[in-house]
Amino acid sequence: MSKPEFVYVTYIETTPEKLWEALTSSEFTRQYWFGAEVRSDWKAGSPFALTLDGEITDSGEILEADPPRRLSYSFKHQKFEELRGEPISRVIFTIEPFGALVRLTVLHDGFVEGGKYLGAVSNGWPAILSGLKSLLESGKVLAIPRTALNKGFDAK
């Protein structure tokens, strides 16, 4: 039996370097990740944090950083009580040139069978990545409500 995981593939009209910057720069993430900022020096073994409204919502460690091809970090949710007990998961971004486009594959795994976190991630990532694609291609972010991040579990 396979383990629960979330996989998302999209094609973006940009360069691998610009996509890498959008994934690792707080200036970019604030625009498409609903105001969230990523914090790290992006070196393997370094801490990672995602902050929203001055609060750490998720934290982890950089597992792999190979700019502009591959980025991976562990991911532990901190904000919602009902998700804090879930195990540490892993996010892998694979960036591949594809003609004039870039193919971005996001794999988020390490979930427990029957846990709530996979449902939250399965709704959050598409909203986040849609905003990322729109920002890189048009310079504008889609007006997706922040509540899209909380679908799939009962956030209080």
UniProtKB/TrEMBL annotation:
What domain of life? Bacteria
Q: Which CDD domains match?
A: SRPBCC_CalC_Aha1-like_GntR-HTH
Pfam family for this entry, one: AHSA1
- Outline the extent of the Activator of Hsp90 ATPase homologue 1/2-like C-terminal domain: 14-137
Q: Which family does it belong to?
A: Belongs to the AHA1 family.
What is the protein's name according to its record?
A: Uncharacterized protein YndB with AHSA1/START domain
Instruction: Please name the Gene3D superfamilies in this protein's record.
Output: 3.30.530.20
